[in-house]
Amino acid sequence: MNGFRERFTRFMSGRYGYDELSKTYLWVANFCFILYIFTHSSLIFWAGLLLLSYEIYRCFSKNIAKMSAQNQNYLNWRYKRAVKLNQSKNHWAQRKDYRFYHCPSCSQKVRVPRGRGKIAITCPKCKTEFIKKS
Known about the structure:
Layout: H1 2-12, H2 20-39, H3 42-60, H4 64-93, E1 98-102, E2 109-113, E3 118-122, E4 129-133
Antiparallel strand pairs: 1-2, 3-4
Helix pairs in contact: 2-3
């Protein structure tokens, strides 16, 4: 068993390996294969096979810079989605106490307390003043 591990380690030396984007491709490919069991759609099967093939190609690729850049772009995209989801959760939790408006000149979101009647709102970013009902 030790000889296999050493040979595999030498084989993988200088190759990219497994990362978060590869994990995502693997999960989506598995989902396609499970979906294929229920639908028997050859398109879904080939999509899963293509994703699995590309995931294996990424793992064994020697172009480390390109694969790392792809993974970093994916991680940035995933982070932005998580931030947007957290903002939506916060807005939903604060909907009883606050109103949210967009500044007419710079589109900055501004939070104001509810139940104050008509108020003059000053944008913290561009200092534009606009009147809204809270």
